[in-house]
Specification:
Strand content: under 5%
Structural class: mainly alpha
Helix content: 55-70%
Number of strands: 0
Number of domains: 2
Oligomer: single chain
Mean pLDDT: 87
Largest sheet: none
Shape: flat
Radius of gyration: 25 Å
Number of helices: 5
């Protein structure tokens, strides 16, 4: 986990350096003598500045998680770890379930309704409700009831 922390802080520094170079380059490449607030490309600078903040946020979070684990390294980070050391139960999932596909279809129909026509939105909401109920109660009926 220590390497992840270092990588994210390096990425934060890289984006900060790229933002500084981008902003200075915009200010120096001003052929018409415009004021500084019109010479700067605000879209690229803002995107790089947000990349700085987002990578710093991830680095800070990973560092807090590492500190919360009291510096214990994960099995993935140890050189002497076996495959079985990192193998834990990730939860129960149904590989035969069709409900996640229905949920994705409802989300796609909702996005399509915003792009094409709002009249499709009630169909998307209805499909979303049916899909959520079906996914939640999948183990209560049929062949897989418990």
């Amino acid at each position: 986990m220590r390497s992840n922390i270092v990588i994210w802080w390096l990425l934060t520094g890289f984006f900060a350096l790229a933002f500084a170079v981008y902003a200075i380059w915009d200010l120096l490449d001003n052929p018409r003598g415009l004021p500084w607030y019109r010479a700067v490309d605000w879209t690229g600078g803002t995107a790089l500045l947000f990349a700085v903040f987002m990578s710093a946020m991830i680095a800070f979070y990973v560092q807090l998680v590492h500190r919360g684990q009291k510096g214990v390294e994960l099995p993935e980070d140890r050189l002497d770890a076996d495959i079985d050391d990192g193998e834990t139960e990730l939860g129960e999932f149904s590989p035969w379930s069709w409900w996640p596909i229905m949920l994705a279809g409802a989300a796609a129909l909702g996005a399509l309704s915003l792009a094409v026509g709002i009249f499709l939105l009630p169909f998307a909401v209805g499909l979303l409700a049916v899909s959520l109920v079906g996914w939640v109660y999948e183990y209560y009926r049929g062949n897989f009831a418990r």
